[in-house]
Here is the input.
Amino acid sequence: MKLIISVVVILIFCSEFKAQQGSKIKLKNVSVSDIKLPTVFLFGKEYTARQRNTLIKEILSSRFYDPNFRMEVNFQEFISNKNFSFIHKGPTEIIINSSKLTNRNLFKTYHGYSDVEMPNKERINSFVERVKAVYIDSSRNGILKSKELKKDILIINQNINQKKNKFNSDSTFQIDDYIIKLERRKKRIEKKLNSITLVQIKILTR
Here is the structure.
């Protein structure tokens, strides 16, 4: 009889102990709206950017300095939840913690001194985990330089047109050496214009 009572007491005690242990485990239901979504500051205004990490990986894996570089980012406004896309084509300047990212950088692997490059995925993934904030803005220096070059091109076009107007419309038109030199100079300036970075991306890390 004593044995039975002891067993019952032990079972009751164990049940109460398990119940007390279970009461310490709190399960919290987390809704999607409670999760802090990644954001990007676009021209001074903060927007939700769900694919921010993917965007950073693609930029660091790409030739962001190339005139043919293209970037498309999907954003969402906080209040209206309105979706829109930001599209940019052209070379882009990347700043990481106040340091400009050069064309040859640690996020790529190279074979000797050749231009053949491959993304360093391990380093990129590790970097993305430490990203704190991303800012996409206009490059002030790039815009000023772009205006100067466009002005130079406009002047060259005016000089070319003035030179062409000196020829009689009835005569066979022949471009002289002066015009050829202007055309070559114009192409050099246009090439320089296409290589100017008009957009700057600043990335801050923890």
